[in-house]
Amino acid sequence: MPNCIIAQSGGPTSVINSSVVGLIRANEEFKIFDKVYGGLNGIEGILNKNIIDLSQISSEDIDTFRLTPSSGLGSCRYKMKNIEESTEEYDRLLDILKSLDIKAFFYVGGNDSMDTTAKLGKYAKENGLDINFIGIPKTIDNDLMYTDHTPGFGSAANFISTAVLETYLDSSVYINNGIFIVETMGRDTGWLAASACTARYNGKPVADFIYLPEKAFNVEDFLCDVRAKFKEQNQVFIVASEGLKTEDGRFLSEMNVISQDNFGHSQLGGVGQHLRQLILDAGITTRVKALELGVLQRCAMHCASQIDIDEAFNAGYEALKYAADGHNGYMVAIKRESNSPYSTSFFLVEANKIANNVKYFPKEWINEKGNGVTEEAYEYFMPLLNGVPTLYRTNNVPQYKVFTK
Amino acid sequence: MPNCIIAQSGGPTSVINSSVVGLIRANEEFKIFDKVYGGLNGIEGILNKNIIDLSQISSEDIDTFRLTPSSGLGSCRYKMKNIEESTEEYDRLLDILKSLDIKAFFYVGGNDSMDTTAKLGKYAKENGLDINFIGIPKTIDNDLMYTDHTPGFGSAANFISTAVLETYLDSSVYINNGIFIVETMGRDTGWLAASACTARYNGKPVADFIYLPEKAFNVEDFLCDVRAKFKEQNQVFIVASEGLKTEDGRFLSEMNVISQDNFGHSQLGGVGQHLRQLILDAGITTRVKALELGVLQRCAMHCASQIDIDEAFNAGYEALKYAADGHNGYMVAIKRESNSPYSTSFFLVEANKIANNVKYFPKEWINEKGNGVTEEAYEYFMPLLNGVPTLYRTNNVPQYKVFTK
């Protein structure tokens, strides 16, 4: 029996390892391949023959690995040259795969990884090689085309939703509260920031305003929003995407020098700090705080979404079956069959259609004033947050397992 | 039957409401008081007669409230004048309590709240009033004297531990990783930062260095630590307290003073960014990131410690019994009876001994180089992190209940 290999690429998520485990478990069930190899640190590691045999790992370790955040096989941001430029890397990689009798290559990643998958699939086919390349989607940004959503997003959204609700309550305890700004990730798209609309108290969204990159940021409108709301309720809760841009396309975060310290260092802040400074400068109140959720959005497994973990698992599981059926150069995608009860199915999209493409947050889900999202957005997000995982624990902290340490 | 009242003060924690519920449940059991009133927004709200009857709340809402972060009765940072200056507020407050036939007053808070408790207890006694004032400890900072630890700390430590482990894994996925800095709260003491020593992978602490306010920060030593470790493992993981100070007592972040609260406490931030800039300026690497955990440390109920929730509950429960026994002007404190198996008991400390006092992280638990903590510290922290709560959920997000919204 031939073998297969799986590797991870790009930024981590909480559920990227679940996809690897889905593939391992599917192979145990269907016995398609003799061994499931794991390429450490993506293409970069495979080119250095940094490969392990995942079939030899104990079932207990695989189960722990499934509930481990971060790319447990290691990751890379390695971009292969275009075939027209040079085929050297392609030939070297395929030689390594051939030497291990590998007939299927699975790459878990986002747009760039799908670019790699498409290029490799095309090159293999053109050279008459019997190796199938299949992409498995992964990104907290939810910005891949054709798929209803991406594994990784639901867990990020679950953390954002919970953290927004908790910080809202925390910032509401005094008689005179202030303005609280939560900054989410999302350099190009507003999916993560928008998902904060699911944070609700007594059925009402706790965020007074949500600002997305899909809508040009206007300082006057922003200050007008905030001033009026602060006057009305003596408290404002704001969610903003790190990717906010002005009308002329400049990132707010790049205009941002807050202060200089005693050593003359410029203190660079993110979007949250920038908005905070705008509010302070406008004299609305001095009580303004900003919190950047940062990488916790992509690694807070302790607050991941069980639905997301399961879907990531199933994406890996289906990928194995698709490869067994002889598909090459495709990415596994998710179709939402029904919202209530929530159900999905999987299908294939050509990987080159995903590569270098971006799915923006729909304009029609942004409210008229451009400072919030509609109930249609809420209906889309809600089923993706279902349930949190029960983690394995050792000495009272989560027990995790990666293969690079 | 007379009544009692409970109120919350100072910064929120994840378990401050659990203490209120412990008191309510104890009163249901022992039937000491007719009604348990809740003073909204602490002393400040009570002086405005902003008082609710907690005995009338449904048991279901009380259960939800128990697992709700933030001060669900509202909080204040109100400092009463010294009795020598003016007794006007004292008289007004006692008149309000008398009008409601209140015979016991419970204040859940930290040092400042124990100051208030002590003053009120003393004034009541001096004026022959039959009202007992009992303090219930609460602070994530763990900086109250005499008590082994404070309710609220274990949950903050649990979140820090988990977040440190998860961000460590997240920051370790590439072949060339960088330097990651996690900034914890802890203006005066290093308990929170030190608790990061519980974050372990394969039994080994993931933080290479932990810097505490109890040890003067030396830039040269810091850069020497970081440079050597980076050379050794091409990756460094640092945990730093927001309260780091130089030899001459200046806060590293004092250039970032945002505002001062009514007690004259400076609001600090930005130590992580400051350390990042030091590393960049020293040319060790350009790959340096800093993450401020911020208020999530005190409100991340989704990652709270069940032991902490239970101890907070029991502190409220015991407080009621102590008041019934006629004690006045005391704070309920925790004694650690045994570490393994972990067990505790409660006792009373005079509130004025707690007020305006600080329990520092023990110097003997800081390692020789001043850049980490000892295994004794680990043994102290570990039992405080036991278990996470199962939260009530509505529409896939945690269901919380406060009485100020």
UniProtKB/TrEMBL annotation, chains A, B:
E.C. number(s) listed in UniProt: 2.7.1.90
Compartments reported by the entry: Cytoplasm
GO cellular component terms, semicolon-separated: cytoplasm
Source organism of this protein record: Clostridium paraputrificum
The protein's name in its UniProt record: Pyrophosphate--fructose 6-phosphate 1-phosphotransferase
An example Gene Ontology biological process: fructose 6-phosphate metabolic process
Site positions for Important for catalytic activity: 138
UniProt catalytic activity: beta-D-fructose 6-phosphate + diphosphate = beta-D-fructose 1,6-bisphosphate + phosphate + H(+)
Subunit structure: Homodimer.
NCBIfam families the UniProt entry points to: PRK14072.1 (NF010675)
Gene: pfp
